[in-house]
Amino acid sequence: MNFKRILFISAMNMLTVTQVNAQQKLNPEIEKKIDVLMSKMTIDEKVGQMNQYNGFWDVTGPTPVGGSAEQKYENIKKGLVGSMLTVRGVKEVRAVQKIAVEQTRLGIPLIIGFDVIHGYKTLSPIPLAEAASWDLKAIEKSAEVAASEAAASGINWTFGPMMDISRDARWGRLMEGAGEDPFLGGKIAAARVKGFQGDNSFSSPLRIAATAKHFAAYGFIEGGLEYNSAEIGTNTLYNQVLPPFKEAVDAGIRSVMNSFNTINGVPATADKHILRDILKQKWAFSGFVISDWASIREMIPWGYSKDENAAAKAAVEAGTDMDMESGIYVPYLAELVKQGKVNESYIDEACRRILRVKFELGLFDDPYRFLDEKREKEVIGSKANHEAVLDMAKKSIVLLKNEKNLLPLKKSGQKILLLGSLAESKNSPLGSWRIASDNNTAVSVLEGMKQYKESDLQYVKGINTTTEEPTFLTEVQYNTTDRSGFEEAKKAAKNADVIVMVLGEHGFGSGEARSRTDLNLPGLQEEFMKEIYKINPNIVLVLNNGRPLTINWADENIPAIVEAWQLGIQAGNAVAQVLYGDYNPSGKLPMTFPRNVGQVPIYYNHMNTGRPFDKDNNVFWTHYSDSEKTPLYPFGYGLSYTTFEYSQPVINKNQFQKGEKPVVSVTIKNTGKYAGKEVAQLYIHDEFASVARPVKELKGFELVELKPGESKAIQFSLTDKELGFYDNSGNFIVESGTFKAMIGGNSAEVKQVSFEIK
Ligand code: NOJ
């Protein structure tokens, strides 16, 4: 019996007895298997496990280093590749896996990674949109659907969820995250990890390992400028940036990806403090750290590492276990060890962590367990998956304004005019990051509205949002000159009862490398909206966007505004069902919408400052002299076709000992005509602390479903986890003092009670 066979059988036995749990504890059986395997490995083979190459076609970064397909196959055969990214489809994955398993000396399987960001083929809404649902069950389900399709396509590991908190709408990658708040972001991160990884046993071949990215502070890059530096203080790092990552680690996440930025001058890829001290030691993370695409090599142009040798040494010593497409670990690391310049224990640790996850995924039991053509056909694009992403899409929509009862539209007897090229687009709603999906596969808004057969619907394009159809690898060209469709649209507008206008960003207008300095509706779109408004003001604006936009004129003048993001493959059906009233919107903004780009960064959990007052004609207070200080729409904001009323919250006592749990209760009543859902939000304010605390911090939320006239009482209990904070040394502390608890339907409209922790 050869060595591979022994491993195979014993690993099978082991998995039936013990399963890896969520607390990142080690499974002794797996550790023993790793010991046996590593005792046979040469230093080159160990470093080989730490190397990841891109596949053969889709490229998600600068020129890949692995060379031709033949060269990559050769290196796999030599045992110099531990992982491939962006290889997909059972046939393709089998081809590379077969080489690793059958032609290398030790037969160690590859782990296959992929950017499964918001669905695989059956695309769900962009992650920022999903976050607007505040519906953790739906979000978990959406990740589960994505995992199942990716797994059925041979993929073992996703590079998601992204959990970068950001307050900067200029940054294009906001669309991949959950917005500005670490509490909401942490809950969503954990829900997504669960959706991808299930119970962490990986007993089902439809669950895959997840990645917490990008570690860390990528959302705080200066000026919202992609790949830039982050100059960030300890208070923000510990209390805003790191909490979602901690939640993901506690949920059992199996990998963490470096961010491209520097943190206070040190590239995250070489940041020992966050990778070793915090992630690996304090949080006891037992999975592995993958670099971002070429982020090890990029430490050279950053001016941090003088050459490849220095970059390899810095990255591995800091705790970066796998090299994605820098092509630096394989040629340099083993040599550095042989020369005594890098301690072999770093390589052993990295290799062990990677093998651990491969064992956990069952790849040693059966390297082909994810490769089943029949399953691939059945799972990908199934009816159930389409239903799940449609449900997610409806829940992601946020109603920003609804005057004159313009919405819902009437299903018959109302002349409805639909305008804007985005309304007919089957591509833009798919959003960015959708490598495995096919272009032009979304249900457009036009198609969705046409399902309402009795509706008197006319479509006139009126405006092209872009001049040509962009791709993942091209810059979006917005239309700034072509007004040729305006006249026809204006003519049609005269006869319409209601106009639905779909405007905003193209789906590829946000995402990686899509930073903007202007947050207005791009190109001629605002001008078009104003021209139509002059003819007929009964307009419903349906916004498509991957970030907050500055839509002040629309907010002042347009009676109804629906935030519809990029909602994925079922976008048009979701929008239509909301517009015609078959679904009552309940989404709430996961990010503050600014009035102008100069307000950025603007966020609800800001500090009070020493001069917060805004009265008495005194100029010396915290304000802008040329703009309101308040946002256009606050964090947590969103309307419904019905209305809700909150009672005054009550608290079970006024004083508590440390460790006791204050319980805050409130009654919510549906005071309108429709059944609806409300996201009740609880915020706290720690009034005096050894490190000044924000004016409000979200610490609880609950979705409450109510029929017209119905009321429900809900309770939030506050544990130390909600009441404490990280001090500037990174210690979590709960301090005595007075607090406020505030409850409401958004961060700006709350009712409060006070209490004290003795
Ligand atoms: C670079 C991106 O920053 C990262 O999020 C992604 O996972 C990798 N490229 C792989 O595509």
Question: Which features does this protein show?
Answer:
TIM Barrel; disordered N terminus; globular; alpha/beta; Immunoglobulin-like; 758 residues; Rossmann fold; six-stranded mixed sheet; 27 strands; binds 1-deoxynojirimycin; 23 helices
Broad shape: globular
Class based on secondary structure composition and strand pairing: alpha/beta
Q: What small ligands are held by the chains?
A: 1-deoxynojirimycin
Rg from Cα = 26 Å
Please write out the topology.
Elements: H1 3-17, H2 28-40, H3 43-49, E1 51-54, H4 69-77, E2 83-85, H5 90-103, E3 111-114, H6 127-131, H7 136-152, E4 157-158, H8 182-197, E5 211-215, H9 234-241, H10 243-250, E6 255-258, E7 262-263, E8 266-267, H11 272-282, E9 288-290, H12 308-318, E10 323-324, H13 329-338, H14 344-360, H15 373-379, H16 383-396, E11 398-402, E12 415-419, H17 421-424, H18 445-450, E13 456-460, H19 486-494, E14 498-504, H20 525-535, E15 539-544, H21 552-557, E16 560-563, H22 571-579, E17 644-646, E18 650-651, E19 655-656, E20 663-670, E21 676-686, E22 697-706, E23 711-717, H23 720-723, E24 725-726, E25 732-733, E26 737-746, E27 749-757
Parallel strand pairs: 1-2, 1-10, 2-3, 3-4, 5-6, 6-9, 12-13, 12-14, 14-15, 15-16, 19-27
Antiparallel strand pairs: 7-8, 11-16, 17-20, 18-20, 20-23, 21-22, 21-26, 24-25, 26-27
Helix pairs in contact: 1-2, 2-14, 3-13, 3-14, 7-8, 7-15, 7-16, 8-10, 12-13, 16-22, 19-20
The structure holds 1-deoxynojirimycin (NOJ).
Residues 60-61, 115, 159, 213, 292-293, 512 line the site of 1-deoxynojirimycin.
